[in-house]
Amino acid sequence: ALKDAVAAAAIDEIRRRLDRDTVIGVGTGSTANLFIDRLAALRNDFQGAVASSQATAERLQGHGIEVFELNHVGTVPFYIDGADEINPRLEMIKGGGAALTREKIVAACAERFICIADASKHVTTLGGFPLPVEVIPMARSYVARELVKLGADPVYREGVVTDNGNQILDCYGFLIDDPVAMEARLNAIVGVVTNGLFAARGADVLLLGTEGGVERLEK
Ligand code: DER
């Protein structure tokens, strides 16, 4: 119910800003899926969407919403997506759904990142949720050793291949007191494609589902 409330709040957040040329960025996961299902009712009020995963693209198309290639769109006015954790500075850990690379790409092209999350995702310090790191398969063991040097306990997400043909290490035991610095440090490890810290470019608005209703927090 909390996820549904924030999905509805995201529709209210954007509906007056849609016109027939608008293409919006859409995230991945169970909360994003509830948003997509509600977006269907507005499909004649905007042009289409850029998807952050194959799964999201298929769900959008299933609702008759046109999906565009990002290279043909450029920027999008908003990107709506969930998070695994989000702190008061609207920095996030994402990647629980293995879509972190394309999510981060679409988010980079968005003027406004609207995060939709239930209260369980709201934390003071990031790192309770294991930090996903997308790696080039041949580099997996090398990256794992480098992550251990940084104090993490990396666990290979067996049987998962991302939309980009890569693999994921989930890093347990990271206490991340400087998300921006850690994001940059992880990006510097050869073989890392993307890490799940969305801190340099966090969210701009958080719609947080709480028992008392939806709270709107802005950076
Ligand atoms: O994988 C992701 O980044 C998803 O957005 C995830 O963080 C949120 O998924 P959920 O809405 O199913 O909790």
UniProtKB/TrEMBL annotation:
EC number: 5.3.1.6
InterPro entries: NagB/RpiA_transferase-like, Ribose5P_isomerase_typA_subgr, Ribose5P_isomerase_type_A
Top-rank lineage group of the source organism: Bacteria
Enzyme class: isomerase
Keywords carried by this UniProt record: Isomerase
Annotated positions binding substrate: 28-31, 81-84, 94-97, 121
Catalytic activity: aldehydo-D-ribose 5-phosphate = D-ribulose 5-phosphate
Keyword Isomerase attached: yes
GO molecular function: ribose-5-phosphate isomerase activity
Protein's pathway: Carbohydrate degradation; pentose phosphate pathway; D-ribose 5-phosphate from D-ribulose 5-phosphate (non-oxidative stage): step 1/1
Active site feature: 103
Role of this protein: Catalyzes the reversible conversion of ribose-5-phosphate to ribulose 5-phosphate.
Family, similarity comment: Belongs to the ribose 5-phosphate isomerase family.
Complexes and interactors: Homodimer.
Official protein name in the record: Ribose-5-phosphate isomerase A
Organism, as annotated: Litchfieldella rifensis
